[in-house]
Design a protein that fits this description.
The chain has 168 residues and is α/β, with parallel strands linked by helices. The protein is built from 6 helices and 7 strands; from the N terminus they run βαβαβαααβαβββ.
Length: 168
């Protein structure tokens, strides 16, 4: 892996999502949802994989890196993010072999994807931080750029989230 990014598709449409990935020169989208399904058009596994292929981007889904059902449901009950991340990080600590395998198999610029726009409230934050530590890379969190009426990208920044990137 040369560069390591994350992205959430919450509130995005597929065209803007794909354009953002292209601007980041994405080689592989790593889907870290346990269940790669979505009510948002174009973001379920098969449709997303096809759209990415048309854009020249490889797709890989890793169910084991998703947030387990019990962990997700506990968060929906108590909205306790500290508890959520403790439980998820315990799960992630059992995925070291998979992370090492991914490092060996995936080449180029990699974007980890899940639903949440804000990476600090998503388990992908833990995954990308672990991969970044293993690779000695600094992860970058992408925001989907929405196009204005003239088709020009409008940069989305998340200054309150720390690192953000709107690739040129």
């Amino acid at each position: 892996m040369k560069k390591l990014y994350t992205i959430g598709y919450e509130g995005a449409d597929l065209a803007d999502f794909l354009a953002t990935l292209k601007r980041a020169k994405t080689n592989v989208l790593l889907d870290v949802r346990e269940l790669p399904i979505s009510r948002r058009k174009g973001f379920s596994k098969t449709a997303l994989k096809e759209a990415l292929a048309d854009a020249g981007i490889d797709y890989r889904h890793e169910k084991q890196l998703g947030s387990p059902k019990a962990v997700r449901h506990q968060l929906r009950e108590d909205w306790n993010y500290q508890r959520f991340f403790r439980a998820y990080d315990k799960h992630l600590s059992q995925q070291t072999d998979l992370l090492e395998q991914l490092i060996q198999e995936i080449k180029g610029n990699v974007v980890l994807m899940c639903y949440e726009k804000d990476h600090t409230t998503c388990h992908r934050e833990s995954v990308v931080n672990e991969l970044a530590k293993m690779l000695d890379l600094e992860p970058v969190h992408l925001g989907v750029e929405k196009k204005n009426e003239r088709g020009e990208a409008r940069k989305t920044t998340y200054s309150h989230l720390g690192k953000s990137l709107s690739p040129a």
